[in-house]
Amino acid sequence: MSYLDNxxxxxxxNGAGGFIGxxxxxxxKAEDFWVRAVDLKRHEYSDSPADEFIVGDLRDQDLAxxxxxDIDEVYQLAxxxxxxxxxxxxxxxxxxxxxxxxxxxxxxxxxxxxxxxxFFYSSSACAYPEYNQLDPDNPKCSEDSAYPAAPDSEYGWxxxxxxxxxxxxxxxxxxxxxxxxxxNIFGPEGTWDGGREKAPAALxxxxxxxxxxxxxxxxxxxxxxxxxLYIDECLEAVRRxxxxxxxxxxxxGSEEMVxxxxxxxxxxxxxxxxxxxxxxxGPLGVRGRNSDNRLxxxxxxxxxxxxxxxxxxxxxSWIAAQVKKTDCLAGPAA
Length: 334
Fold this sequence. Notes:
single chain; alpha/beta; Rossmann fold; UDP-galactose 4-epimerase, domain 1; two-stranded parallel sheet; 13 strands
């Protein structure tokens, strides 16, 4: 596709004030697309290069109807979400389900009426059944294992519902749909404090804030397993999926599985600190999770190209700078 072809294609990114959405806008502008960005707030850590940035609530039908006008493709990443401290306590279940489902219902209905040709939907590995993720060493997360459904959170149930919603619109209205199940995407310019941050960012913050020889806290015994995918890798996979003729759902993640203790150890090495881990009670999610990349390899010829440590080095450097900036703004202790 030429530069002029890209400029004539209008793309809407919902959730552009968030971590993945903000990086996606930059990627799409680098490919010379015209981009409209929408979110409740502007990006906290960088200026958006979007051609148009609308601050608004996609739960509002009037706004949802307006932003899809003259749009060819929608990347729908807007959701009420966060890390384990937000998703797994149960305190936010009604908001998580209502807010995210409403956004998707509005996006699809007003988008198809406006003539949007293609929708990308960011689902989650949280859609997979808890019963397949009890063994930390052998989790099962192949795409076909999502049913019989039994996610470990209402966040996961909403993701499954919305996947089916997009597929129903494809069957009944002929719109094109692409669905990805993200597995723990991380990197710079993401939430790193406040309770909605995910494990890599939380650990980078804790290590950066701790003096050498100090202590950091980890929820549970730290033997729960996960895989983590750097943001640039995620965006490459998303773009391949959207340009392909494959609908999905498909995993976008890494197969480099580590325990949370191992993840903490890597961050300590990067930060050059020897710290003690203090394990405390807290929300954990499933015991084990790892991306199964067989299907995306077959369909898109994609696999991650960088080891976890490389992404962590860049993420730690950025978060350490945020910690230092925050400390400077706070000034000396009284």
